[in-house]
Structures are given as structure tokens and as C-alpha cells.
Amino acid sequence: MQRLSFCIQLFIISNLFTVVKCHNLFSNAVDSTLNPNVIMKNCTIGELCTGSVNSSSVYYYAVQYTFTPNTTVRVTTNMKYSIEQDAPILVVVRQIRGIVSWTLPYTFPNGMIYSNVSRILCLHNEANRTENHLTTVFIEISTSNTDLIEYSIQLDNVTEYSLQVGVSHQFDVSPSMPVYYKYKFPPTVESVFIEVESQDQLCTSVSVQSFDCPVYDVNEIGIRQGHYQTMSKSASFNVHSKEFPKRNEFLLVFIVKPTDFDCLNDKESTMIQPAGVVDVPRKKNAVVKLQTTTYYNYLLVAIFVTGGLFFLIYLIAFSLMCKYKDTYDGLDTAHLASLEVTSGAELAERRASMQRSQTNEDESSTNAYARQTSAMEVIQPEGVGYVTVQ
């Protein structure tokens, strides 16, 4: 009896110990999530900075670089994706006057997932945008996932950021890595003609936006600002400076669609990737070039000249028809009557000739049939019948 009582007491004590331990673990997990450790880390331009993060810690990077008015910075983030992860990594980039953020992995509405995301920082978030100066970008890496997730970040200078008339720019763009350029109208230029060419057929949206922050370079909102086109192999815009009176400059934003549905006709179809597909290779290579309105006017002149030539041909043909009337219009009534009589006689003679020809053909057919019939004789010698053809 005493032994049974001792076992019961031991069971109760062990259960209480387990409950207390679980409570402590849960409290520590909640406390680490609500009050994570803040860890400062260093990173420089061009350096690949790696690490691992969970809900117990938040990493802050302070990256200094030299700002110039004609360049900007691209932030590229990557993670080691696993389907067992129940929470993403949150990336927050802070500039002097603005914030941009995204998640890793980046998930599109159709379910496609990208573990690599890259964004270009907005130039107008800087306090001084006209002179070279030293500035700092702050990057925060955090997650609510209790398991460690490996990640990497890298900041690079974007030198080919400003467009110039007559200069082509070749670039790569993907759904998770949008690209945009800026162009400022010189005092002597009122409008420019934009041409975009590509060899592949990936559906891409090209939008012209005012040079403000934030930049609408995300698929869900990238077509809500300014005017835009969807393109497969080519696109073109004619942009006027009066459309942007605030700064007399604009942004040209390129975003690859997660599918080609927006660029297809009603009779065409596209293969929709199922939800959960990771890092679908949809990288588009394109070339953008700006021309002055003189080039655009040449195109208009070519169109109008071609149309004018066709109109001139029709006009000449119509004039000739009016000048040289029908031959019968110049004849008097007597000549017309004689022509009608002559035409009637010729028509009657032709009909008689056709009837004679038909009669001769019928007679020839009848004679041939008679000859064939007379050529056949039936001979019956001694009750055996057979036919001899002579």
C-alpha cells in the first residue's frame, strides 16, 4: 500500500515538473519573440553578408556609401528556402526619408515563390540629391520563425541609372528583380520617343511614372501610376515634358509578370504554374533606347507619305476615268442602233453555229452506234451459242 502511494506521489511530482518546464519554455519563446535580441552587424558596398536568424534575434546592418546624383543602390537578398518554414523573413530597408520592405520568400498571388529578391532604392529618399555625399542605409532582418533560417544580403552601386537620348541600355529583369531608369528633360527637349526591344516573349509591363518615392515597382501596384504597356517583344512610348511639371523628369519601370496571361490573346493559352513552385526561371533580357521627337516625326512622315502615295494613285485613276469616257458615250443614236443590230446578228449567227455543231455531233454518235450493232453476229452451231465480233 505504501509502495502504491509512493508511486502516485512520484507520478504527480513528475507531471508537475513537466508542466513547469513547458511553461518556462513557452514563456521564454514568447519573451524572445516579443523582446528579441538586437544585434548590430557591419556590411559594405559590394560585400556579400550572410547569417542566420530566428525569432529570438533581430539583425541590423548599417551600410555607408558615397551618394552621387547619377547613381543609386540595389539591395539583393537571398534565403535558403524550406517548405517546412512557417514564417518568412522580413527585410526592412531604411533611408533618410523613406522605407521599403519585402518578405523572403516573396510570394505572388498565383502562388509562385521566389527566394531571391532585389530592389533598387529610391533616389529621392536622400536628404541631398544634387551633390556627392556620404550616406547610410539601415537594413533590418527579422522573422517570427523559431527555427534558424539562413540568409544573405548584398548592396551594389547601379551606375547605368540615367537614360540618355540615342544611347541603348541592355538589362535583365525578373518578377522578383524589377528594374527602372530615370530621364531628365533638357531645356531644349519637349518630348522623347521610347523604344523597348527583346528577343524573348516573357510578358512584361513597362510604365512611365513621375520621379517620386515610393517607386511602384511591384507587380500588384506597378501599373497604377502613370501610363503603361504590356509587352512581349516590343513596346514604345511618346513622353512629353509637360506631363511632369514638378521635376521635369520621369522613371521608366520594368516588371516581368509571373505568368504570360496578360500578354496573350483570347484564343491563346498559357501554362499556369501551380502554387508553391519556387524560383521559376523568368529572366527577360531587353534593350531600351530613347530618341528625340525628330526621330518620331520621321516615323510619322513615313506613314503619311505612304498613305499619300496610295491616295495619289487613286486620285489619278479617278481623273483618267472622268477624262476618258466610255467609247460608246461619243456615238450618236444612229450608230448605237446599227451597233445593236450588228451585235444581234452576230449573236444569232453564233447560236445557229452552236446548234449545227450539236446536231453534227448527235448524228456522228448515232452512226457509230449503228456500225457497232451491225458488227455483232450471233452464231449457234449445233446448239452451242457464242458471239463473234468482226
From TrEMBL:
Record's signal peptide: 1-22
Tagged with keyword Disulfide bond: no
Cellular component terms per the entry's GO annotation: lysosome; plasma membrane
One Pfam family in the UniProt entry: SID-1_RNA_chan
Region entry Disordered, spans: 350-371
Membrane-spanning parts: 295-317
Predominant location category: membrane
UniProt-annotated location(s): Membrane
Topology relative to the membrane: Multi-pass membrane protein
Keyword terms: Glycoprotein, Membrane, Signal, Transmembrane, Transmembrane helix
Superkingdom assignment: Eukaryota
GO molecular function: double-stranded RNA binding; RNA transmembrane transporter activity
Entries under InterPro entries matching the protein: SID1_TM_fam
Family of the protein in this entry: Belongs to the SID1 family.
Name of the protein described by the UniProt record: Uncharacterized protein
Organism the protein comes from: Adineta steineri
